[in-house]
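tool_call: predict_structure(chain=1)
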Amino acid sequence: MVWLKSTFRRLGLEKGMFTANSNSGKLIVYASTGLQSRSRFESVQQAAKETAERLKLDFEIVRFKRSALPIYVYYEENTGGEPIPIYCDEGKISGLEEICSSMRSMMFVLSFHPKHPSLAQMRNELLRLS
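tool_result:
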């Protein structure tokens, strides 16, 4: 764990997370520490956190120490596959419900792909939330 923390510091990353003890995966928010608008980050963070809690997913924040970039949210299954982008704020401020809806819609579409059996199990919940 110490090696992981020092590697994140060396790469200019800050990491925060909570664990929902899920077997389904996690949502990861990637954002710059140099954001021009804190409200942009807070909206995306809150939407991702609420979505993760409702779907019983883990949640993680990775902050880059670089100039302002778009904020991305990725879904990663616990099976060790590649993280999949499910949301990008494109540098604009969006409402909480719009962000949540966009993420859930992308996850619903991905639930039909055979590489994502965990999402397939969540399909009914994703539909109910939308």
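agent: The beta strands are 13-18, 26-34, 58-67, 72-76, 84-88. Proceeding to next step.
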